[in-house]
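OP here, attaching both records as promised.
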Amino acid sequence: MRRFNLRAGGLSMLALAAAIPLLAASPAAAQQSPVPFDAVRGVFTFATGLERALPAVVQVTTLGQSEGPSSGENEPKPVSSGSGAIIDAREGIVVTNNHVVEGGRKFTVDMTDGRIFDAILIGTDKATDLAVLKIEAGDRTLGLSQIEVVNSDSLRTGDLAFAVGYPLGLDQTLTMGVISGLGRSGMGDRIEDYIQTDAAVNSGNSGGPLLDSRGRLIGINTSILSGGGGGNDGIAFAVPSRILMYVVAQLRESGEVKRGTTGVILGSLNAERSRAFGLGIVRGAVVEDIAPGSSAERGGLRRDDVITRIQNRPVSNAGTVAATVGIAAPGTQVEIVYLRDGREGRTTITVEAPGDRPVIAGADAVIARGAAVRLASDGLQVFSVEGGSVAAAADLQAGDMIRSIGGQPIADLAALAQAMDGTGERTLSVTRGEDTVEIRLP
């Protein structure tokens, strides 16, 4: 420890010595610095770019029916609050998180200038944890600001990032960090392709924007990874603008998000499966099965292929593929790189419009209402759940063993496909560890 401190002190002195010529430079020389310089005040600052965005960062309050004994008041009470970003000032469009508005009956939007507006919910998408609100002006002139949106595909690890929101009951707060990683996934049953940052994000920042150093929106803050205390540990995740703008456009158009399909049933590569395949990697998406007649089948994919890249993006797990396909319009050509018996192959498959069938059956797996199921040694096992699906909303989880549907025992995939086909609610009895759980699928 003592040696470490000495080294740290030496490095600090070297850094300070290196910085002195820069700090002592004339304003004219400082103007040539990559860090913006305010000659009037004699300071380095990013305020000029960021200040244009800050008036468009709002506080979102969700109100719902109060619980407990009746008080004689019927007005909904605040149940949660978060942040949001105005991306269309003329129409009063605010984007925030689904979990900020979930369960709400009424919504209000607080501006930085002290004004407060009611808002209506245009639509939500649980799979990406996004929601769109529209400010209701009434007889008032909106006079809003909006944030410029930039394509998140231009981001690089190490870029500066600024998180803005209303954390922990404070007024609007700005924090700075860097882009710590890109394409993060594996945090749950959602469409995940997160931006990771170490900019301080806490409770209340949810739904607020992640900005670049010019004050442009690159993502919407959605979650943190905490070591147990529930506070900021320097690991936060944001939905990238590439996904955000696709989802917002669909919600504004129809109030829901319709995602395409390729007919491939995927699982995630892990160390155990990698050893079984004789591979030296642990990142990728394993093709569990292919729906007959699907685009994936026509593209030549086979069971046990390991997808390593999609649209020239590295694949971490099945979520990476779902995120790419999930924001691709039907007809989009998707380029895939895969491993088969250790050898690399390439193919192109077409994203198709989602069918009306609630069940997709392959030879060795079945997808029913978003849950992918295969036959294991002790029964029918759910091995993945599509983010935002009916199965995910009903809390069906990977690893669950399906024992019966509607009180009838289910022993094989054919019986499962038959029982799940058609419309109407299904009640599944599943074992989860040593517990038996009843799952209702609408």
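Record two, same layout:
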Amino acid sequence: MNPPAARILYIDDDEGLRRLAARVLARKGYTITTAASGDEGVALTARERFDLVAVDHYMPGRDGLSTLEGLRALPDCPPIVYVTGSEESRIAVAALKAGAQDYVVKTVGEDFFDLLAQSFDQVLEAAALRRARDRAEEDLRASNARLEALLREVNHRVANNLQMVMAFVSMQARSVDNAAARDALHRAHQRIATIAQVNRRLYTSNDVEFVAIDEYLAALASDMGEAWSTHRTRTVTVDADAARVKTDLAVTIGLAANELVGNACKYAYPAEAEGQVRVTLRLAEAAGGNTLLTLSVEDDGQGMPPDGSVQGTGLGTRLIDALTRSRGARLAHAPVHPGQAMPGTRASLTLTLGPEDLAPAEDGLAADFQI
């Protein structure tokens, strides 16, 4: 089945040329409607659907440029080809700037209609390509929306399942008598909670690729402070640069923060003493377009052992190393108040991030921090 002929509106005040154009262009396969003035052409276009409008420049009353302006003001204006008997380039430039897709210089003879038909074909083809592109972009947006909704649902289910696992671990911890086993289960509970916090943020936001690291660490700090205050008060505070980071990177940072905060909450202060743990995250420019991320966890407690040995099993340190090794991470410890009775400890973890790890500023989701 052949496609329907393109509907063309030809606007020209010359009656003889209108009739000739209608006859010649019809032989070339178009369905032609004519209008004798700019006002009539604009009114016809407002009432009927045309695939293309051809507008003559020299017309009494409302000339071609004024008619072009009126056509462009209509909703869903069809593409426009400007026709003029003038060879002055300024008129063609003015028409193109005003929104015409092409122009043809009017001449005597059959060549004019051949050029006009060629212009029609090119403009119609370009319009069809634009419509196809717009449809493809709309389909892509709809597909992305469906995918994001599916990912949010998956993250919702994962978060619910992790909450269930956390409940099982807590039940198991309460049922064992061995202190070391209870502590191990408690630390496992916190590691699961760290991952669950990311999933909760993914299914409650409009972005499933990036996580606001400052908001995530703040929520994590609240969870950790509550979890470590069962027998003694542990206040965990956060001061983090605002940034949106890749989801997997957010999990890495969260797990590292969990291990460092856990160590500080457990070992920095005497068993029944209150204590504060401070978490900071800073971003700075680095060479090669990269970003340097520094995660610091500090306390005002009794400090590291004189020999610098790691207290506990050392599992947390090994986890941090395993999580961050590929990013050239460096973990260092130093006193917060050197020479004092309670020197405190600052554990600083430094990671190198690539441009792909941070949400780009132009996507509307970037953090206040921009490289």
